[in-house]
Amino acid sequence: MTNLQQEREHLVLADRHIVEGRRRVADQTKRVETMARNGQDTVMAARLLRTFEETLEAWLAHRRNILRALDGR
Q1: Which letter does DSSP use for residue 22 in this model?
Q2: pTM for this one?
Q3: Per-residue pLDDT tens over the stretch 21-31
């Protein structure tokens, strides 16, 4: 497998991770909002949301790196 093929496969996987990450962030955001509306403690749920957001940011940065590699930079 060539490096170009490998980078393209990594891009496909990164895109899948990003879609899943965005879904998780959206779902967890709704959970935190619902919990807050119901007067429940949101500390742990909000902490998990922040972890999801940080992970998504890392995946987006990784995707940018893959695109740079594909562009030959």
Answers
A1: H
A2: 0.88
A3: 999 999 999 99
